[in-house]
Amino acid sequence: xxxxWQDGHTSQFELIWLRAHCPCATxxxxxxxxxxxxxxxxxxxxxxxxxxxVAAELVGHYAIRFTWQDGHTAGxxxxxxxxxxxxxxxxxxxxxxxxVVD
Length: 102
Ligand SMILES: [Zn+2]
Ligand SMILES: [Zn+2]
Description:
Number of strands: 5
Helix content: 25-40%
Strand content: 15-25%
Radius of gyration: 14 Å
Oligomer: single chain
CATH class: Alpha Beta
Strand order of the largest sheet: 3-4-5
Order of helices and strands: EEHHHEEEH
Bound molecules: zinc ion
C-alpha cells in the first residue's frame, strides 16, 4: 500500500505487514496467544490470514479501515500510527516498528 502524506513524504507498506499488525481486538488477542504458546505445531496449524485488500474506507479524518479478502474488517489503522511505523530508512532506520495504536 502506497501512502503519500500531506508533507509530501511517501510510505510503502507491505500488505502482509499491515495484516500482521491488524489492531483489532481479535487479532491482538491472537498475537498474544501465539506469542505465549511454546507449541510450534500450533503455529503450523493456523492458516495464514489473507494479505489481500479488497476495499479500503476512511474512518473520519484520522484512520483507514481495510476489508481483507477473507472478510476481516475489524481493524482500524490510525494514520498517526501508520506514519510513525513508516518502513522507510528515513523514519525507521531499523525497519518498520510495531504498530502502536493504544
Ligand atoms: Zn484484525
Ligand atoms: Zn518514512
